[in-house]
Amino acid sequence: MSKVYDVVILGAGPAGLAAGLYAGRSRLSTLIIEKGQDGGQIAITDEIENYPGQIVEGESGPSLIARMTKQAERFGVERVSDTIKEVQLEGDVKVLKSEKGEYQGKNVIIATGAYARPIGCKGEADFIGKGVSYCATCDANFFEDFEVYVVGGGDSAVEEAMYLSKFARKVTIIHRRDELRAAKSIQEKAFANPKIEFFWDSVVEEIYGEDILQGMIVKNVKTGETRKVEADPEDGMFGLFGFIGTIPNSKLFEGIIDMDERGYIKGDEDMHTNVPGVYVAGDVRIKSLRQVVTAAADGAIAATQVERSLSNYF
Description:
Blueprint: E1 4-5, E2 7-10, H1 14-25, E3 30-34, H2 61-74, E4 78-81, E5 84-88, E6 94-98, E7 102-105, E8 108-110, E9 114-116, E10 132-133, H3 136-139, E11 147-151, H4 155-164, E12 170-174, H5 184-191, E13 196-199, E14 202-208, E15 215-220, E16 226-230, E17 239-242, E18 246-248, E19 278-280, H6 292-310
Parallel strand pairs: 1-7, 2-3, 2-8, 3-4, 8-19, 10-17, 11-12, 11-17, 12-13
Antiparallel strand pairs: 5-6, 6-7, 9-18, 14-15, 15-16
Helix pairs in contact: 1-2, 1-6, 4-5
């Protein structure tokens, strides 16, 4: 393709769509490239409660993303469904190559997101959003007075377990070792929390239920013994939260963009990366809170920085 866009945005999650909205509204020629469905992780969320301005009576991930997509389209943002295989980000014009061809832009916003590392048990994919979650901040409210289980033993897992204990009546941490990997200060708080219990040396092998999560099989990795865990009959279900890390969609930029040891892209508070004209937004960047609201904010900032650079505001 011969057209050189003012900005090419990689990813149509909340960060990419917000960036598109702000860029399009600033009358920048804008292209969003998305390889899958719009929304990223939020697209598989059945219910949202904490996005400012959402439909209070009931909002799902797909419904919120559908409106974001329409907003971006309203301001003339072009869309392509494609998978980028190679990038050339040096120079004044960035080149993004795919199996279909190539795209060119004066600026690039990387909003490729991240995905939760799966627990790895049988049946997991069938119950995402139906009892299985990877975000306590997003979904804790839905398990008020229910029992929940947390898989993991690092800082994030234990911190999220303590957060969940504010809502659930009991939280059980399932860890494949006989001691936590979390910082000692975090461990002490968890051990002192009367709502938190532990399954040591254990992994979740399988989960099951009718439409919602109702049972699981947990295996002791040392003895080989298994136990069946089933929902309280009065509850009818329980929650299973996986916190064994997230994986950023950043492999395409290895050796080009500065990242941390986990593959998250480094960006300053204005979303600049180490490469001039390349910005990062959303879950793929190093940040303390990965939520729809922070992703949208990142996208707005990145697009505004692009507009300012093209207008020679700096």
